[in-house]
Amino acid sequence: MLGMLMAGHGSVRRLRGVEGAVTDRVQTRDGWVQGFTVPLPQNDVRSSEQLARVMFEGAPAPVRQLLVAGWRLGLGLQLLPGTSPHSLLGWAVTSSSHDQVVLAAQSRLICAVKVVRRVGPDLVATTSVRYESIWGRGVWAVVLPFHLLIEPRLLARVVQSPGSERGARGEPHH
User: Fold this and answer.
1) Under a CB-based contact definition with an 8 Å cutoff, are residues 41 and 139 in contact?
2) Digits of tens for pLDDT over the chain (174 positions)?
3) Count of H helices and E strands in the chain?
4) Is the pTM of this model over 0.85?
5) Helix (H), strand (E), coil (C) string for 15-44
6) Other residues' Cβ atoms within 10 Å of the Cβ of residue 26
7) 10 class by beta-carbon count within 10 Å (0-12 exposed, 13-18 middle, 19+ buried)
8) What is the spatial distance between Cα 24 and Cα 15, in angstroms, rounded to a whole number?
9) In this structure, how many other beta carbons lie within 10 angstroms of the beta carbon of residue 2?
10) Distance separating alpha carbons of residues 84 and 122, to the nearest angstrom
11) Which residues is 103 bridged to in the sheet?
């Protein structure tokens, strides 16, 4: 399954320092944050939500199934059923504008927030995790290597998809 994501992630960069308002893999007492960025094609006018939908919902079916299983079974996240204007692969869409979409999911272990935003010519994806229990940190430590492997590859797939993509995964829902 991961082979479907392996190619073409060379243009994705991990954010460092205060760049993009996150620091490189910051581990705090109560949580963790990580961001990646990729340059968008110059003529790409899709909204952040459209890009996030391509990133997650546009992944190959086995990858989507792996993601949802990891989120539900590994992290215990309470995902919303189905796809709707108010959810993205089970994550609640808490806010959406052209330049930024905020996704949230939580469990007894962690509270996670994904922010996908357009910053100038780039697309930035940030994941923040807050530990909700002592077990949250340990479970996240096990899941983290998979996150660091898969997330940049999902982000790279966005720039490989057509900028004028139409349909359920590319259309704005607001």
Assistant:
1) no
2) 444 444 445 588 888 643 444 444 455 668 889 899 999 998 899 999 999 999 999 999 999 999 999 999 999 999 999 778 899 999 999 999 999 999 999 999 999 999 999 999 999 999 999 999 989 999 999 999 999 999 999 999 998 887 644 433 444 444
3) 4, 8
4) no
5) CCCCHHHCCCCEECCCEEEEEEEEECCCCC
6) 12
7) exposed
8) 6
9) 12
10) 26
11) 93, 114
Q: How far apart are CA 87 and CA 83, in angstroms?
A: 6
CB 114 within 8 A of CB 48: no
Backbone φ and ψ of 37, nearest 5°: -140, 150
60-96 per-residue burial string, b: 16 or more CB within 10 A, e: under 16: eeebbebbeeebeeebbbebeeeeeeebbbbbbbeeb
Tokens at 166, concatenated = 């139409």
Give residues with Cβ within 8 angstroms of 162, minimum separation 6: none
- Structure-token pair, residue 128: 């923040």
Q: Could you tell me the CA-to-CA distances from 69 to 10, 17, 49, 124, 137 in Å, in that order?
A: 27, 32, 22, 24, 19
Cβ-in-10-Å burial (0-12, 13-18, 19+) of 15 comes to buried
